Amino acid sequence: RIEAQLHDAAGGRLLAAESLMADKPEQILQQVDLLSLKLASHLGVDPAAPQSKGGLTEVMTDNLEAYRDYTLALEQARAFHAAEAIRLLEKAIALDPQFAMAHARLGYVYAIRGGISAEQGKRYLEKAFQMADRLTDRDRLYIRLWYEAANGDSAQAIHSMREILKRYPYDAEMYYELSYALRNEARLEEAIDVIKQGLVIDARGPRLYNRVG
């Protein structure tokens, strides 16, 4: 059973409450998609609007275990534990071969985060692009960015990161990635400015504080 409540942050007033029941684990992600549509409607979002299309099961995976491995892999990648991240992402892909972002993140770990093999990383990124219908617009921008970085085009990669932040200014991960790229180019003052902007969005982000330190 999953319960969710919407509150008016200014005064604490309860605006709406929804819940769901899943009889089997494999039903959870589909039910979460339905729950998110209900919550969005309470916030005045039109379910037919283009930005509201593509639930978790459409653009990620409908396999709960694969999604769990994927989310754990992200934590390992952010901690620079490349081997463990790769193991978890490979498990996710084995469970759902059409899990496009698992392929993409595997490419990211190989080519960028782990610095293991740019060529191997690009193959996974290309595989993810072949599943464009399983990607959101932001996912496509991320994969293009990672491909640029894997090709060693740091100037274009930095430009792409800034473009992503223009479109998605609340993307805390991208502030971290941009600061990292600027630091590697010895553009330290710019890197610090970017981190400070990120801390406005994510004031409790330990990775951002670690980066600026």
Describe the structure.
The protein is mainly alpha-helical and 213 residues long. The protein is 64% helix and 6% strand. The protein is built from 11 helices and 2 strands. It has helices at 28-42, 56-59, 64-78, 82-95, 100-113, 118-129, 137-150, 154-167, 172-184, 188-201, 206-212, and strands spanning 2-7, 14-20. The chain has a two-stranded antiparallel sheet. Strand 1 (2-7) and strand 2 form a beta hairpin. Helix 6 runs antiparallel to helix 7 and helix 7 packs antiparallel against helix 8. The longest helix has 15 residues, at 28-42. The termini are far apart. The relative contact order is 0.07. The model has no long low-confidence stretch (mean pLDDT 89).
Keywords:
213 residues; mainly alpha
Strand content: 5-15%
Main pleated-sheet profile:
2 strands, antiparallel
Listing every helix as H and every strand as E from the N terminus to the C terminus, the arrangement reads: EEHHHHHHHHHHH
List segments where confidence is low: pLDDT < 50 over at least 5 consecutive residues: none
Output the strand order for the largest sheet: 1-2
- Rounded mean pLDDT score: 89
Globally, the shape reads globular
Q: How many DSSP-defined strands?
A: 2
Radius of gyration: 19 Å
| Backbone structural class | mainly alpha
Helix count equals 11
